[in-house]
Each structure stands twice: as structure tokens, then as C-alpha cells.
Design a protein that fits this description.
three-stranded antiparallel β-sheet, 7 helices, Arc Repressor Mutant, subunit A, 2 domains, alpha+beta
Length: 180
């Protein structure tokens, strides 16, 4: 389950506030906001720890996104990649979760290669590894025997895939493919 730790503070004095864990129910959030900001003062999130970091003014929207991510059984890396894909816009990300538009496929190469470490890989190598998965697991080039696969240039195959499909490599190494 994904948790997002956020500091809810006053707009006029960001240091005044408290840390909260999301997801939380709407009533809990309203209670905290009323405690921090009596008389309708404005609050925001100046600091957060979790897969979605930044400054946010819509606390309930961020809470919805965390709820949706948990419903869709995403891990924190996948949520972080989706947030990046949607240009760090909570409204767009929430709209995606609510309507599944656009249809996306999330590729995490750790599901195919044990002990895969994105930090040790160049962007070019990540693409080549994705190409290998597409050839081996999904028959991208048709029925290719194992002898021929030994001589394939997966970097070239990756370039071909990138020209044929709408695919995005996120900064954490997760790959997002737009379907259809």
C-alpha cells in the first residue's frame, strides 16, 4: 500500500501546520485543516515525502490520487512514473484514474529481470532491455529461434519500437506505453 506523508501548512506561514499520512478519509483531512487553519485560512502542502513530491494546494485531490493508486495496486515507482508522465499535474492524473484515459501500459523491467537495477543502466541500455522483453515474451519480431536471438542488436530493435509506438521512459526507469 502506498502512503504519502505530507505537511499541511498555512499559506501565510508554511512552518505552522502538521504532518499527515495519506490516504486518509475526507473527514480526517477536513478536521486537520480546521485545526490548522481556523476561520477559513488557506492551507497548502509545502513539503511531502513519498512517490509524489512537490507543492500542492488541493489536499483532497492528492488524497484521491493516492487512493486511486492503491485501488489500481500500483507500487510507489509506478505512481511516481505516472505523475511524471502527466507533467506533475494532479488533475490530469486523477482524470486518468477515474476514466482510464488514455489507456496506458506500465513496463517495469524488474518484473522480467531479477535484481534489475535502473541506477546501473544507461537510458540506451534500458531501451535495449525492453526490446529484449518484447522479442522474447511478446513475439515482437515473430517466431525467432534462440540462435538468431543471440545475434540480435537489441539497441536497433529498441529504436524501431520507439518509432512504432508511443512510449516514454520516466526518470525512475519505468516505461509508460500509450495504447491505441
Amino acid at each position: 500500500m502506498i502512503e504519502q506523508k505530507v505537511f499541511i501548512g498555512l499559506v501565510r506561514n508554511p512552518a505552522e501546520g502538521e504532518w499527515v499520512y495519506l490516504p486518509a478519509n475526507k473527514e480526517e483531512i477536513e478536521e486537520i485543516i480546521n485545526r490548522i487553519a481556523p476561520n477559513g485560512k488557506e492551507v497548502f502542502i509545502p513539503d511531502s515525502e513519498g512517490p509524489i513530491n512537490g507543492t500542492f494546494y488541493d489536499i483532497q485531490k492528492l488524497n484521491e490520487v493516492i487512493d486511486w493508486a492503491n485501488l489500481k495496486e500500483l507500487d510507489k515507482d509506478e505512481l511516481e512514473a505516472l505523475f511524471e508522465y502527466f507533467d506533475e499535474d494532479l488533475d490530469s492524473l486523477c482524470n486518468y484514474f477515474e476514466h482510464d484515459m488514455p489507456e496506458l501500459r506500465i513496463w517495469d523491467l524488474r518484473n522480467y529481470f531479477p535484481n534489475y537495477n535502473y541506477a546501473d543502466k544507461s537510458e540506451e541500455q534500458i531501451w535495449a532491455d525492453l526490446a529484449e522483453v518484447w522479442v522474447d515474451e511478446y513475439g515482437y519480431l515473430g517466431d525467432v529461434n534462440d540462435q538468431v536471438k543471440l545475434h540480435l542488436n537489441y539497441h536497433s530493435v529498441a529504436e524501431q519500437i520507439r518509432t512504432e509506438y508511443d512510449i516514454h521512459l520516466c526518470s525512475n526507469g519505468i516505461i509508460i506505453e500509450v495504447i491505441g
